[in-house]
Amino acid sequence: MRPELGGRGWKLAVTTGQTDVRPMKSRVCKDRGKGKTSPEVGRSLTEKNINQNIVLMQYAVRGPLVIRTGVIETELQQGAQKPFKRVIRANIGDAHAMGQTPITYIRQVIAMVAHPELIESSNLPKDAKDQARQILCGMSGHSAGAYTMSCGVELIRKNVAAYIEKRDGHKCDFNNVCLTTGATTGIKMVLELLCSSIDGKCPAVMVPIPQYPLYSATLVEYGLGQVGYFLDEDNNWGLDMQELERAHAEASKTQAVRAIVVINPGNPTGQVLTRKNIEDVIKFAYKHKMMLLADEVYQHNIYAEGCQFFSFKKVITEMGAPYCKEQELVSFMSISKGYMGECGLRGGWMEIINLDPAVQAHLYKALSAILCPTSLGQAAVDCVAKPPAEGSPSYEQWLAEKTCVLDSLAQRSKIIYETFKNMKGFKCNVVQGAMYAFPRIELSPKAIEAAKKANRPPDVFYAYKLLEETGICVVPGTGFGQKPNTHHFRTTILPQTELLAEMMDIFQKFHKKFTDEFA
Amino acid sequence: MRPELGGRGWKLAVTTGQTDVRPMKSRVCKDRGKGKTSPEVGRSLTEKNINQNIVLMQYAVRGPLVIRTGVIETELQQGAQKPFKRVIRANIGDAHAMGQTPITYIRQVIAMVAHPELIESSNLPKDAKDQARQILCGMSGHSAGAYTMSCGVELIRKNVAAYIEKRDGHKCDFNNVCLTTGATTGIKMVLELLCSSIDGKCPAVMVPIPQYPLYSATLVEYGLGQVGYFLDEDNNWGLDMQELERAHAEASKTQAVRAIVVINPGNPTGQVLTRKNIEDVIKFAYKHKMMLLADEVYQHNIYAEGCQFFSFKKVITEMGAPYCKEQELVSFMSISKGYMGECGLRGGWMEIINLDPAVQAHLYKALSAILCPTSLGQAAVDCVAKPPAEGSPSYEQWLAEKTCVLDSLAQRSKIIYETFKNMKGFKCNVVQGAMYAFPRIELSPKAIEAAKKANRPPDVFYAYKLLEETGICVVPGTGFGQKPNTHHFRTTILPQTELLAEMMDIFQKFHKKFTDEFA
């Protein structure tokens, strides 16, 4: 599966030391440069002499299939005749793009922080005005136009710390809370810290398979090895400790495995980890002296009965010594998901636990070179950390809007699960949380043969056909990773209920036709 | 000057290939870990085994002296007795933090994009409402909460292209305009492309000395060599072609010099390049087959009579072939500077010219993994690219506010120049543009001796004394680079006129006292 590249970039020497599952790579190499012209007329930068990690990296959520979706959309607008009238983008966790309306309170506060005159001149609610005033007081020059501290406005960091304390029932030091431009910036910066070989072994990071492609993309970008551990599809995508040990032992022969990423609730898999599972992972990380990266951006998105979100911070604290005092943990949160779905505002935070103070200082210093997260994204973070209190003027509306979104997501998670579960050739786990289903599809030998002819992995072939014939855009399983010879795709649960019903209907018809065609 | 580090990180092998001026490094190593505890109790990450490029990197604009400033501010708030009552932050180009008020129109539009109800319910001006409506129409789901395309909202990219066409009098293809989270994201991503050795030589980038520390920090972070070319202080910080050739020839012996950075108007040096100077740099880059990075974020900030801003794009276009067709150029712009000073909103763009299409596609792909620039920052970009038209309801106020800021900045640039020029032991060039002065100070042998005892470079010693005795925070020249045995500091021209007069007064008294003390 590993492409032979000749090691042109010096970082590549590191990348090639991998023994892990990288299902995207073969595709990358096939697609490389396809349809592009690279005349070297006086040009100093060519595809061959730039950073080969950038050439290699892929981000499936916005990959070639999604780009094709944009083209189809434009063609439709220009009057092209297709077997469908509109595209349904089920490829990305982008709630507002799929018709979810913003939480009014958040937007009121942001509008006033952006244009403070509104605090006096408008009829916006008093609690929103108060919150906007407080946020402005925390900003230099009382303006959202000033840079904030690199870790964010202190007042907002304190409100986030209070949110975490309330969530977990344990202390949170605001000095360990760092606001970020979405969760992405924090994740990338923490991974960049790990770029150092140990005893001559190349550094590597454990990630779930399937995983969110930000991780695979960033590991390739930074020349870090990716050590995949398979989630247990037959056990609702749970973490199997034997599999973790296997992956670690195998990789450790040639690599220095420095950290483990856990995504809970899962993306693209939608599982919610049990407390026991989290404890086991913490013990595992401690035993092997690995840092723990807990991607907890879907902490508000819990749908299935009996499921509950436990933060790694809470569990580690309650496990006591040595874990609570020594195990390094960074937890990531975002305003892009949850009930707010504010992707475009780019707000998030990370909580840093048990990091060596000198290392933490270097992390903060590195963040300072990108100056600060966006001030208005921070204002939105403040509203998520400190929503209207019970009894305040905006509380009822805020609660109603929040509940409406979460109830509807829960309902849609069931619709998707029920539909896929009952489709012939489909296997789909319960969507316990997050915003996605990751069903498995049986593809016939004839379909696999056709995919081969089309020079595409079978799941990519399936997803392209789905797109071209129905306008539905999902992301093939290869973008996230999957066990060899299995085929999946990720769909979001985000189309609004009516559209989702339509999408499920179209999907069923397509799949039947596909099955018949390749029977 | 180069520290010996034993090459622990694999990237470091690259970093150590440098022959350039890196005045910050010696300080870095001295300060490393000072006052920090790194008990290795069960911790997997220590200062010694993390990415050594991150350990090495420094960003002086938010460095230790600035952190100390924050501590002093807190001490003052807590009632500590100091020889001064307030801190004056002249360390960072952060206009709003220093009392500049936002451009009303920008904030009105952002407020309505954030909270569209205001379009109907408020008395905000019609043109601002129209612009907010248009921006929302360009966003998925008509919401700022949706992710935008990775290169930004198409409508806004088109407005930026129109702005560039108007500025330069030449065509601009919006497909080559990419919106970013401030200029920083774009600069970092383009530099990351260059991380590939050529014929076994490590890649390196030419940067002016003095330079803006984002460049030095990023080059260290990415393990790229820094090739400093000295700006000509005696010629108002102009670019001397002989010096460029010298720096290139020397570095080329051991490194692959892949790009040159030019900052115009200059940061920290405040010069505005002549058209002839720009032409020469373009020829130089072409001759040596280097990419050109034009940092043009201060394009609105031109103060001195006879000075005019010429964009590299305009000059390259008018130079004709082969330059206009072959010379690779990326120009960076930001909403953080100019007359708007919207640092906190994090908006900017880059225009990409003559890049190999395959390379550009990889650049855009890499940007897609960080999803998109902030939507509200993009809305602000739209207002900068497409301000109210003459005759529209907001035009007069917008023009008055813009003119007021720029006139005041011009006035303040003169106050600073006149004061420093006439101070004994000071040499200061005219501040032709941007937001800074970078005066040179003569320090007596006794002062240099005292600095040595305090284990600080002389200019750092001076800046710390200034801070501790007066509360004025400037950035020492070592943070930007300077010729050996010369001493400078950078001050912004951003304190409002009254405060600036006070600051200049305090500064003069301090310098006299300092000079007397170390006579």
TrEMBL record, chains A, B:
One of its GO terms (biological process) is L-alanine catabolic process. Pathway: Amino-acid degradation; L-alanine degradation via transaminase pathway; pyruvate from L-alanine: step 1/1. Residues 124-496 form the Aminotransferase class I/classII large domain. This is alanine transaminase. Belongs to the class-I pyridoxal-phosphate-dependent aminotransferase family. Alanine aminotransferase subfamily. Transmembrane segments: none annotated. SUPFAM superfamilies: PLP-dependent transferases. It holds the Pfam family Aminotran_1_2. It catalyses: L-alanine + 2-oxoglutarate = pyruvate + L-glutamate. Its EC number is 2.6.1.2. Homodimer. Coiled coil: none annotated. It is an enzyme of class 2 (transferase).
